[in-house]
Input
Amino acid sequence: MRSLICPRCGATHELTGRKRGERFPCSCGQELVTPAPRLSTGKVVALVLAVLVGLPLLVMAGGALVFWWRVRQVPPASDSAFRVDAAQNVALGDEARVNVIALCDAVQMYRAENGVFLVAGPTPREVPRGGQAVPFPHDEAFEKLGFAPGTAVRLQYQVEVREDPVGEPEVICYARGDRDGDGQNSVYSVTLDANGMTSPIQVEREDE
Output
């Protein structure tokens, strides 16, 4: 049974039947207001548990929605590499520099795990002309290296292994392109020595 004690005279008033916020006078003249009913301990516990359980579920649902939206924005896998490059207006030279470094890193990681340098390419067999993307064909050596420049590429890639002047193995990683389609190739290369040290990128005929 709910009750309210007058702060002036200490008289007790039963609140049964009175609405929340209802004003009424005490016999001493003090105006009293019916307070909101208090939650029982059980209801408080239930409310806290609902918040603790419901909040993580709400966050997870929001994350799933964001993930779904981002997946919808990804182009189809069949030509995603070409679409990304086109959308970002990536220069052929920038693409070559990034990928030739990645290729030499992959060669070094393979050697660290298997003890040998692996020859690969040239792939595609012909250098793409005019900066146009062509399918990147299946190549077992590149797959072993874990080098995947995309389903469509604008450059030819190769890993060549030879001996340096003192007889140690040396790797040269190549990316070749023909931006203007005149048959003269731009060549980007990085040399990897037996100690795992890489040279700066060497560029020949970048404007071709």
Observations:
- Residues 122 and 158 are 4 Å apart (CA to CA).
- The first strand starts at residue 3 and ends at 5.
- The helical segments are 41-73, 80-88, 92-114, 140-145.
- The mean pLDDT is 78.
